[in-house]
Amino acid sequence: MKKLTKTVAVPLAAVLLTAVSVSASAASSSFQNSCRNIKLHSNDTEAWISAECQRHNGQYNPTTLPLRGLVNNDGRIQSQAGAQTSYQKSCSNRRISWNSESVRIRAVCLTRNGSEREAAIELTNIENRDGALIRVNR
């Protein structure tokens, strides 16, 4: 019973802000712990992150990584394999946030009925490999 009480006690805002991309092989990203100047970019057809990531020799290297398959599904940012990234067409105030444990894209996205919803998705399986951002399969 305690477990159910703890689950019910989670604030609704926390639930709405935690739209996480889930898969059996998803692992939290770690690049944010060895990269600086992390930024989110987008245009009409794509989105990507850029950063300066530390190499084994201590120098920082500018690097980018495309973000593929991010879509707005009724006000929620979701990852769809094989889909073109399109969330940026119907989501405003797009930003990237991170801490030592995770990296998230956050935005205000339109729902099917035209209202706005705060949305977020965790970026998973991204690492810094000797100064280059890479997506790893786990």
Short description:
This protein is mostly beta strands and 138 residues long.
Describe the fold and architecture.
The protein is mainly beta and 138 residues long. The protein has one domain: HIV-inactivating Protein, Cyanovirin-n (Roll). Helix content is 9%, strand content 46%. The chain contains two helices and ten strands; from the N terminus they run H-H-E-E-E-E-E-E-E-E-E-E. A three-stranded antiparallel beta sheet has the order 1-2-3, with no helix packed on it. Strands 6-7-8 form a three-stranded antiparallel beta sheet, with no helix packed on it. A hairpin with a 2-residue loop joins strand 4 and strand 5.
Helices and strands in order:
Layout (H helix, E strand, L loop, with lengths): L1 H7 L3 H5 L18 E8 L4 E8 L5 E8 L2 E4 L2 E4 L11 E8 L4 E8 L5 E7 L3 E4 L2 E4 L3
Antiparallel strand pairs: 1-2, 2-3, 4-5, 6-7, 7-8, 9-10
Mean pLDDT: 85
Radius of gyration: 16 Å
Q: What is the count of structural domains?
A: 1
Instruction: Bin the helical content.
Output: under 10%
Distance separating the two termini:
35 Å
- Count, helices: 2
Element pattern in H and E: HHEEEEEEEEEE
CATH top level is Mainly Beta
Category from helices, strands and their pairing: mainly beta
Spatially, the strands of the biggest sheet line up as 1-2-3
Q: What is the number of beta strands?
A: 10
Spans of at least 5 consecutive residues whose pLDDT stays below 50 are: 1-24
Q: Can you identify the CATH superfamily?
A: Cyanovirin-N
3D shape: elongated
Strand proportion: over 45%
The main sheet comes to:
3 strands, antiparallel
CATH architectural label: Roll
What name does CATH use for the topology? HIV-inactivating Protein, Cyanovirin-n
